[in-house]
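Tutorial, part two.
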Amino acid sequence: MIKNVGTIDRFSRIFLAILFAVLILAGVVKGVGLVVMAVFGFYFLLTGIVGFCALYSLVGIQTLRRKAGIDF
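Running the prediction step on this input gives:
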């Protein structure tokens, strides 16, 4: 698995996951929105920590800048 999520993207994903968790725990979101937000929050947290996004791989997006000559 080659990392494809850059630093700013990773921090943004983790921030959104925390924001979603706060909204869910505060009871602001209910019903189907809660489930959707929980799934997206978990996905954002996981991809933010790991640095790999499967959806990015499918569409060929990469926000991670690579140094010349180095391949992970």
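The chain has one domain: 7-59. In part three we will examine how such features are distributed along the chain.
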